[in-house]
Amino acid sequence: MLSGLLWSLFSARPRNNLVMITIKTSEEIEILRAGGRRHAEILNELAKRAIAGVSTNELNTWAIGLLDEGGDYPAFLGYTPDGAKRSYPAALCVSINDEIVHGIPNENPRILKEGDVVSLDLGLSHKGMITDSAMTLGVGKISPEEKRLIKATREALGAGILAARAGNSVGDIGFAIENVAKKYGLKSAEGLSGHGVGYEVHEDPYVPNAGMPGSGPKLKAGMVLAIEPMFVLGKGDIVLSKDGYTYHTKDGQKAAHFEHTIAITNGAPIILTAL
User: Structural domains in the chain?
Assistant: First the structure.
């Protein structure tokens, strides 16, 4: 973790010593579950449309239309994270190749090309409750190394979710994710993390992608978290673009990002953004 670094805008915010973790009611979790199913359907539809020749702006426009069809709202559009100089101008984040997270799709739109590695990250507000989810895909043929990167990052998300049980800590989630990175010889994007979610796009606690077992806030039933490993092929150092949102790998290597919103229970966690 880079000392003093922002939690990624949308994956983080400036940290201080005051941690205010909210516990969602069973009724609120049911709203999140309903919204999460719709969220998953939209994200999967966008993934099908992310093919060579499609523009990032088209993906954003489709995201807005699909949200509107279901009576839901884009949680990212107009959101201003702590430390940001302006609000986010789109409904969807589309990050390509060396972009790790928060690529802006409708400012200087780009056309997807064969061989691109693309992350789609969407926030959805359903009846006032927010879910957050992301996936990474290859456009057409990608290299075996890039396929391995995507597979490892998806596997790390699963490992983090398995560790997200009442009585464990956020450090246990980070430790599980970190072990998958080591297994595949990959690095996490330095300083970028998961977070609490539900009432707002960003809530406490900070959910690291590396950590020590038992460290950090304890997990309790009713907590809702966005777990989001971000792995890179290179060294893990990151840079923030002039647009104020898009994080790139410093060495230009490709990145992958997967995310689910989950609810902590007294048993297995509920994956709220699963089909």
Answer: 26-271 (3.90.230.10)
